[in-house]
Amino acid sequence: MNKYLIRVVLGLLVASSLLLAACGGQPMSSPQAPAEPEVEAEAVELRVWTHQNIAFNAGLEDLAQAYMAEHPNVTINFETFDYDTYIQTLQTALPAKTEADILQMFGSWVCSYVEGGYLAQVPADVISLADAQAKVLPAPLGGYVCDGQLYGVPQEYNIEYGAALFNTALAEEVGAAGYVDGWADWDEFIADARLMAESQDGVMTRAGFNFTGSDGIATMFHSLILQYGGQYLKDGVYQVNTPEGVKALELMKLLVDEGLVDPVLFNDEENWVGDSYFDGSSAIGLVGPWAVPEYSGDYPEVVKVTIYAPLPSVGAEPLFAAASGWGMSVSANSDVQAAAWDFVKFAALDPANAVQWNLASGTLPALKGNVSGANAEKLVTEFPYFEPFLALLEYGQHEGQFPDRDFVWYEVTYPRVLNFLQGNVALEETLKTIESEVRDSFQ
Amino acid sequence: MPKEFSLARFLGDWLRHPLRGRDAAEKRFVAMTVSPLLLYMAFWTLFPLLWGFSLGFFEYSARRAGGPFLGLGGDNPFVGLQHFQHMMNFAPDAPLIVRQFHIGFKTTLLFAFIVVPLNLAITLPLAVLIESVHKQLKGLFRALFFLPVLAPSAGVAIMWGYIFHPQRGLLNAIIGRFAGKLIGVNWTGDPNLIVAGVPVALLAVIVAYLWQDYGYNMVIFVAALQGIPQSIKDAALVDGVNAWQMFTRITLPLLSPTILLTSVLTLISAFQVFDIIQIMTDGGPNDQTHTLLLHIYSYAFRYQRLGWAAAVSIVLFLLVFAISLVQTRLLRTEWEY
To answer: What pTM does this model have?
Structure first.
């Protein structure tokens, strides 16, 4: 009997050790430990999670080195993830409480994680909401404000409309000169873009203006509604089946009908705007300035002849919808929230450090103070194509809080508008469908 | 004569008489060596299955803080059969998520029922041809035709994406050479390209899938062909059959069990197609290649509707199970030789 008991116990021990080995991984951090002020001399380890973007992470690591030099007791460790993997990692790690202390966030995601109680509010001694509204541009800040509270700090201004990649060498080749003084209206723009488009045997081989990517279509559609004097999201109600929505789609269809782009051949799946512009199959491309550093390594000759040309506005002001931008939040589960927020403040709220990161990452500034003055000059010197954007930033409006902005942009707006532009569905039905599908997503 | 060992009988005896009898020591030894593996599988296979199954009855999102038990309840409420009820909503104004489910269901069935017969129509004759060449070349041909199976699916999808590219693709270049002009057909992105009611984008994905997959069934058929006794073939030859009669009256009937096996495996695999479609078309154009697995992935990981995605997974499981049962029943054979 004793021998039998010993064998049973040994067998259970073997089974348990196998299970524990299988479960081995990062240690679980203690749940919901309240943030307490750390004694400066106490060793602190900060874990930072970011998505994989070489320029972004190089800039952040430089700031981390500078911070650690000033705070020798702090060690900052980075873990990076492929974009799609990062989203899934956040979704599994946050409920499991295995996430890092500092989480790189895109503004559109923040409020959905706040809903789950996963993100910490920005302490007042880091920055109050009122101070943030005074210091940070409204469009990037908008993504980090949930129910009137601040849950992170943006580092960049994500802009996907307002100005477009423009190949000056191609323009000179074909005699398109309207861009030099800026296009006064869409007719002038169309004239230039039509010259720059190219077809062979009825097949478009170079788009004059490639705006039919998912971000381009969704942002252009919503921005045009704003420029025409409408509001697509009013008091929490989404409305695009309006006169302004009609005008927005009519203008976009005009660009297609004038031969600027073939939406069947140029869209997210084929000839995506970033690849297409830099490989020469699009003359003008609607994509944010983040694309230039991404492609500069492989296409330096194209970058040399590229500017960002401001698009014409149909309204008195060049209003546009902006999706906030990348920034940093702190986990509500972190044991070292004070140190984490201190680093966030150092990296994102100090104008010199913030612009250093913008310079490294090739992104537009989120801080109002960096849109003009010496810091702005540094940005323009390094990235001359930033100049038209800096003049536009004040006109950006945060796109608004959707229950799932990615669903609205990529599952509804982009495919429906693309289908309309391809000539497969009528304008009225397109607007009606977009409005009803987006409203369903609010339920 | 000793009875043939049966694990089921062994476990049954063990459960009835676990620690008694002359085989008690043997039974204890087996229990202790097998139990760690069973525990491992229970944790990594059974628990996730049960978890996934349960999620289908909740409105669950990883972003919301739920109840104390595994995040269920609270802001992730129990909704019972609500997801399944929504799936039965065929109204034209049903929510997009429901309409996409219906599209995914139809597309998955269409994909599977095109792939299976095409796959068999390619692999079986190919296997017969390989078996008919000189034995020194058989190995070479088997290896060559099996190579695509070893290629990573992402690479296959990217390669076929380039072949189908509208302006720079190989297919349009070949057609253009014959036509004498530039051809700009967007094989994977034009929603108006439909042949016999089947979107060309779906056919393009099927071509890529078949190219990667056919080698697998081919080697199974080659092995099965090698198992047919030569004496039967010799007897048939003596009776004066020609090659076609040999194939249809001797080879095919004797391969029935293998055909059943390959068709079931191919069907199950086709129902789970994901990576090739996600990379080549991402469900487009206009959801024409939107399959159930892509639907599950999108709503689970892009839009955080894990409860709905789990419910669709249950439906997919039942669909595969039901069709496999029907298939096994229809293609069942009593052939022995």
So the answer is: 0.84
